[in-house]
Write a structure and sequence with these properties.
Rossmann fold, eight-stranded mixed sheet, binds magnesium ion, binds adenosine-5'-triphosphate, globular
């Protein structure tokens, strides 16, 4: 039995009939377009709707989320993987009881772990499915193998783009890389687009239409438009004060846009059609991918 199969068996044994969390991975082709703000503000909006939310900061370079939260985590994912900490010990609770887990230096070297240890990790991550309804994964900038691994393991991919021409072409490049990933499945992972830093709603729609046209023509990939977030000085100010704008200024135009997007993601039609893969399966998918690539 190879390791991927072992992991599948572990999940079958441990994960039924447990609930599975909805895993939403936020990404972009180009850096600095607003991924971390999207993650944190959607987290606050989902909390306001009564959902239990955990953010996994998978940006192993710069710890974005903790800076925006103004909270310093004591532990990170590496402490669970290598130091035997349990899942509850590595969650830091921020404003409005949004939990977050810092990725630390990540999942490098995971494929060398013993089977017993992988069972330990998968069991712990499976517990996350009982703690959270929604897990938002914030990824780093650029199209790296690590980011693609997270994307193919997610039920929902949230692509953030801006009206800058380079942002649109970089979004296209990311989707192209995803399309050609050996384990990408367009039925298992839905791609949803947010237009950020727009001057008006129309600019967002035009931006999406452009992207949708080339993606449909050359990649034959379905993508869905979630809406636009305006360029907003109140958001920049909130970032400076290490507060999500949705908390600091709930009436700000960007906060209202996040509220509308969160509502759309939770509505019956969109909310029920997503694959709720759960955290254990998400993680196993990544480990299995690493094994195959080694
Ligand atoms: N809607 C907006 N209105 C005004 N400023 C914005 C908006 N969205 C993002 N910004 C600004 O852009 C900066 C980058 O945003 P953010 O950190 O969320 O991007 P990112 O995609 O996570 O970046 P990185 O790729 O470095 O992780 C923020 O500091 C913020 O000031
Ligand atoms: Mg970021």
């Amino acid at each position: 039995m190879d390791q991927a199969e072992q992991l599948r068996n572990i999940i079958k044994a441990n994960n039924n009939p447990r609930p599975a969390a909805r895993i939403i991975t936020v990404t972009s082709g180009k850096g600095g377009v607003g991924k971390s703000n999207t993650a944190i503000n959607l987290a606050i909006q989902f909390r306001k709707m009564g959902q239990r939310v955990i953010i996994l900061d998978a940006d192993f370079g710069l710890a974005n989320i903790e800076i925006m939260f103004g909270a310093v985590p004591k532990h990170n994912l590496c402490d669970l993987i290598y130091q035997g900490k349990n899942i509850r010990e590595i969650i830091t609770w921020g404003p409005m009881e949004v939990g977050f887990i810092s990725g630390g230096s990540g999942i490098v070297g995971l494929s060398n772990l013993s089977r017993d240890y992988l069972i330990y990790i998968v069991q712990n991550l499976a517990e996350l499915d009982t703690i959270a309804d929604i897990i938002i994964v914030d990824t780093g900038a650029g199209i790296s193998d690590a980011v693609l691994e997270f994307l193919v393991a997610s039920g929902e991919i949230l692509l953030v783009t801006t009206p800058e021409p380079t942002s649109i072409t970089d979004s296209y490049s990311l989707l192209k890389a995803l399309r050609h990933h050996p384990r990408f499945s367009e039925t298992a992972s839905q791609i949803k687009v947010i237009a950020n830093k727009v001057d008006n709603q129309n600019e967002g729609q035009v931006l999406f239409n452009k992207l949708n046209t080339v993606v449909g023509r050359y990649l034959k990939l379905p993508i869905m438009y979630l809406g636009a977030v305006p360029q907003d000085s109140q958001l920049s100010r909130a970032v400076m004060q290490q507060m999500p704008v949705s908390l600091q200024s709930p009436g700000a135009k960007s906060a209202l846009a996040y509220e509308a997007i969160a509502a759309k993601m939770m509505n019956k039609e969109l909310g029920q059609s997503v694959t709720k893969r759960g955290m254990a399966a998400f993680f196993s998918h990544i480990v299995a991918g690493k094994k195959n690539n080694d």
